[in-house]
Amino acid sequence: MKIRSLAVMLAGLSVVLGSAIANPAKAQTKNNNTYYCAQLDGNWNTFVNTPRGRVTLINWANKFSETWTPQKRCSTISQRFQNFLDDGNLKFIRTGEINKMPVLCVANARGGACPEDNVLITLKPGTDPEGVLIRLVDFRRSVSGQTLTLSADDAGFYSGGEFYVDMDKFIESVPVNN
């Protein structure tokens, strides 16, 4: 009886491991992170719940336009983060330009493109998207304006002249809220 139970457990484990090997992108989405929009101290924020705790990702302080209020942008973009994660595509974030507008988008691979279907956030014309992306991941930098230093262990890196953020590394290293 014990041997049969062990055989059933091993068979179940091989199915789980086999599906993770056969479809690593989908297996990676099992990281239990959840992106959502909520108010904190009167401001709309995009949060991510991780196994380590809650992370405040973006504070939506400014109105993009009359129709794109902080609440609407927070809700829409938080849902985009979650959809990309659920689809197994939230690996890298990079900058780009779509319809002559600066954007942050999801790239499926290091050095990947920024197609229109992968737009995460559209920024106002004239905004430096690389600066926005660097500020997003530079959580260790103090307000004093110290120089940003990127090392091989950092979530942010350059590839082909474009700045990318490895979302797995970023979420693993960003401080959680108390």
Automatic annotation (TrEMBL):
- What range does the record give for the signal peptide? 1-27
UniProt keyword terms in alphabetical order: Signal
Q: One short Pfam family name for this protein?
A: COP23
- Keyword Signal among record annotations: yes
Name recorded for this polypeptide: COP23 domain-containing protein
What is the organism lineage in this UniProt record?
Bacteria, Bacillati, Cyanobacteriota, Cyanophyceae, Pleurocapsales
